[in-house]
Specification:
single chain; alpha+beta; Ubiquitin-like (UB roll); DNA polymerase, domain 1; 5-stranded mixed beta sheet; 36% helix; 14% strand; binds FE2/S2 (inorganic) cluster; metal ion binding; 2 iron, 2 sulfur cluster binding; oxidoreductase
């Protein structure tokens, strides 16, 4: 049995060390806001925060977490920048099918946590690992700028 901290809450999970965090979140904890896309760190759909950094939950094993704190899309709205990003997402009507958007919001929030007023180049760099088949990139960029000045 291991204890992990997810969205500020300690939870116990009985899983092997090499199980990906994404599996634990979705299948063990029932937190399905974090999406499975590619499983090989190419699409960004599974992005969560580990100690404030955007990471791919499909490639992060539970054994590698140690005492790190995990934040998911279910909890990011409780953080100052997460709240601003979610509000800007609604304001700019970013979402189309929605599948990629949990990961996009997690990456955008981590960006603002590290660079409060990002340039277009900063945004493109930080968001380059999050793919959107619906092509919402323009509105994502607008929403990040809006969140940065909110
Ligand atoms: S599912 Fe993790 S990056 Fe695609
Ligand atoms: S909104 Fe559909 S994949 Fe991004």
């Amino acid at each position: 049995m291991k204890t992990i901290t997810v969205n500020g809450r300690d939870v116990q999970v009985d899983v092997p060390d090499d199980m990906p965090l994404l599996w634990v979140l979705r299948d063990i904890l029932g937190m399905t806001g974090t999406k499975y896309g590619c499983g090989i760190a190419q699409c960004g759909a599974c992005t969560v925060h580990v100690d404030g950094d955007a990471v791919r939950a499909c490639q992060t094993t539970i054994g590698a977490l140690g005492n790190s704190k995990v934040t998911t899309i279910e909890g990011v709205g409780e953080t100052p920048n997460g709240k601003k990003v979610q509000s800007a997402w609604l304001g700019k009507e970013v979402v189309q099918c929605g599948y990629c958007q949990s990961g996009q919001i997690m990456s955008a929030t981590a960006l603002l946590d590290h660079i409060p007023h990002p340039t277009d180049a900063d945004i493109d760099d930080a968001m380059s690992g999050n793919l959107c088949r619906c092509g919402t990139y323009g509105r994502i960029r607008e929403a990040i700028h809006a969140a940065a000045t909110a």
